[in-house]
Amino acid sequence: xxxxxxxIADVARxxxxxxxxxxxxxSGKAAVADATRARVLEAAARLGYTGPDPRAASLRRxxxxxxxxxxxxxxxxxxxxxxxxxxxxGLAEAVAPLGAGLLLLRDExxxxxxxxxxxxxxxxxxxxxxxxxxxxxxxxxxxxxxPLVVVEGDAGEGVPRIDLDxxxxxxxxxxxxxGLGHESAVTVTLPPHAGWRRGWMSxxxxxxxxxxxxxxLAGVRDVYPRAPAFAAETTxxxxxxxxxxxxxxxxxxRPTAVIAQSDLxxxxxxxxxxxxxxxxxxxxSVTGFDGIVVDGLAPYRLTTLVQPAAEKGRAAGxxxxxxxxxxxxxxxxxxxxxxxxxxxxxxxxxxx
Amino acid sequence: xxxxxxxIADVARxxxxxxxxxxxxxSGKAAVADATRARVLEAAARLGYTGPDPRAASLRRxxxxxxxxxxxxxxxxxxxxxxxxxxxxGLAEAVAPLGAGLLLLRDExxxxxxxxxxxxxxxxxxxxxxxxxxxxxxxxxxxxxxPLVVVEGDAGEGVPRIDLDxxxxxxxxxxxxxGLGHESAVTVTLPPHAGWRRGWMSxxxxxxxxxxxxxxLAGVRDVYPRAPAFAAETTxxxxxxxxxxxxxxxxxxRPTAVIAQSDLxxxxxxxxxxxxxxxxxxxxSVTGFDGIVVDGLAPYRLTTLVQPAAEKGRAAGxxxxxxxxxxxxxxxxxxxxxxxxxxxxxxxxxxx
DNA sequence: TTGTATGCGTTATCAC
DNA sequence: GTGATAACGCATACAA
Lengths: 352, 352
Hints:
2 copies of one chain form a homodimer. By secondary structure, chain A is of the alpha/beta class. Helices cover about 40% and strands about 15% of the residues of chain A. Strand 2 of chain A pairs antiparallel with strand 2 (about 100-105) of chain B, so a sheet runs across the interface. Chain A binds a DNA duplex through helix 2 and helix 4.
């Protein structure tokens, strides 16, 4: 082994061709005679050259082939949410033809020297659920001309958004319950803001909440203006159980209808209801949100709003691709589909 | 806006300092007079310069600050497994001080031009559950001097491995059951290989299996040499339910002890048992593997083997860090801890 | 503490 | 089809 790693220039010299020719052998950007190609490849093998250095290539090309994904929460937590996972799937798929991989970034770097939107070699970035915290690096990224897309959040003017008709969709679920004769309902929501501790939400909390939480709550209140809102700490079955236990604690005021802001929460509420000796949907109706497959919930099929999670990711990928090619792209508003399952039914005759 | 983005050279000129000085202002690698710093920063602001270009910096430094994570399976699926999620957590934490982000890579590029170990600007890579498929790019990565670590898999000589004492650990669970008087047991395993369809495993399947599947099965058979093995398609509660339904189908030969290779599968088996009218642990004992919190399984606490999932990720991160600093690192063998819950009990008197 | 001079390894451009 | 050349934008060794 030589003292220094072989470069494409070494290979070209060894093969007796110009560097540009050797480069083309690897990039395929132009036609090369078979004999020439063979000579180059042989020389490379002799020198132990394994292809162009991605770092140098990306400097020269002005592209790294990397799309940053910025999460507004702990990575481990984000991946526990099937909706996010599905989105990542769609996103990965959409940016693949672009030759891009996904770089995981947080909006609040743990370590001082952790990579950020501005220090990582990303061609574009997708912001998920991100908070106001990163407005600074956002501005820098935009000044630098890095295409940005935000999924369910607000990154300010000029950043395309992928959104959901949360309010309207949630209103459908509420209307469905109303149509079944439920005169009141309780809603179990996603956290209103970072660091929230499980509990009942005040009106102040409600107005300051994350977009998603706030909009879905508004949808409920369009139908049930006085619906109490219990906010969970995160989206999980266990959180749903915890919330459900509170709702079903006093036999006095047990709700007959519970509107959960996620399928996981709904699944937990159902379990808590069973625990309290209530039958679903005979005694209490429960709706979810997301339309994911809840592992282990069978034989229940949730009445829920099916959101196009993978589509959202795919759309984000398509938008950054378009922008990278110099096009401009508007945001997209996705629509949820109401799906009736077997967790909602006509309200019991005598309100409990 | 000028026709061309400002570079650090432009900033230096505008500020009336040398490029190296401007560079130092951003890197902090040397002391700079406050007045000088201020001049540089002002000039930068005037020119709309937002900091060094990461691509150029990484070429010059020879480091990109990116660690590749290569999965042997569909990304969406990988993240559905809490163990993987925890590992990613630990890994992210361990590479953060290194100033590195995680780049998600697949071992079987979907698109022809999807990024790979060899085309992505990674400083190092962690391979998770990867298959033989990528031996080619592995060789290239090693030739190029990219530090590699493999978690629960085999990447050939010279690649440090993070492993688990799967066989010994699983043997403990089996011994525990044997000690409780269970004379036979059935095991529900992880898939023996990619693309496996749910079903009973033959001895041929068993020997050709993934390391993890094979070793845990061996642990069971150390205690119950004739234990039948039913292999799931993936690790999830629903798969566990499906497997459990098969096990508990014929009232004739119902097992009194089921050894599942993951907590999720165990949770499903328990649910299937309840469905079949069996009580856990009175009628049937069930053990899991992983020691994760199974969302929604309460009030059961699984008897299981607790594996240090986050530790494994952290160790992988530490090893690549060490190797990046020129050190050499050996692999690590982690140990699982047996934890008794309330899903195992003395075998019922009359075998069913 | 600041400045000077190089080169990191490629690839785009254009002429041949 | 192939070759010569010039950037890409920066960080570092070393001198001042």
